[in-house]
Amino acid sequence: MDANKLIYQELSYTLVGILFSVHNELGQYAREKQYCDLIEDKLRLVKIPYKREFKIANSGNTVDFLVEDKIILETKSKRILTKEDYFQLQRYLQESKIKLGLLVNFRNKYIKPVRIVRIDTDNKYKY
C-alpha cells in the first residue's frame, strides 16, 4: 500500500501513539470511561483539538471522540469486537460524512487500532 494514499496519515499516527500510551498506563482491565479520560488528557497535552461525546446531527448517535473534525475515535473495553462494532463506526462515518475512523479495543493484551474508511455510497449510482 502506498503510504501517500493514507488518509490523515500524521494525525492518525499520533492518535495511535496516544492509544498505545494509554493502554501501557492503564492495562487491559480498566473501564471505557477511564481510557477516554486519559485519552482526553493526552489530546489536551499535545494540543490536538477534539470533541468528546460528540452528537452527530439528526441521528441521535454519539461518538467517543471527533478529533480535529477529521477522525472519529471509537473506544471499546470488551472481550471481543463484533461485526456490529465495525458496522457502528461505519454508520457514524456515513452519517457524519467523516472520511476516517479509528476503532480500538483496550481489553486485549495487545491493542490493534483499526482504521476504518468511510464507504462512498454515492459511487454506486455513478456507474
- The gross shape turns out to be globular
Approximate strand percentage: 15-25%
Strand order of the largest sheet: 1-2-3-4-5
How many domains make up the 3D coordinates? 1
Number of helices: 3
Structural class: alpha+beta
Helix content: 25-40%
Structure description:
The chain is an alpha+beta fold and 127 residues long. The relative contact order is 0.17. Helix 1 (9-26) packs across helix 2 (32-45). The model has no long low-confidence stretch (mean pLDDT 93). It is built from three helices and five strands. It starts with 8 loop residues before the first helix and ends in a 10-residue tail after the last strand. It has one domain (3-118): Trna Endonuclease, Chain: A, domain 1, CATH 3.40.1350. It has a five-stranded mixed sheet with strand order 1-2-3-4-5, with helices on both faces.
Entry summary:
With 127 residues, the protein is an alpha+beta fold. Helix content is 36%, strand content 22%.
Tags for this entry?
127 residues; alpha+beta; globular; GxxExxY protein; GxxExxY
Fold blueprint:
Elements: H1 9-26, H2 32-45, E1 50-55, E2 62-67, E3 71-76, H3 83-96, E4 100-105, E5 114-117
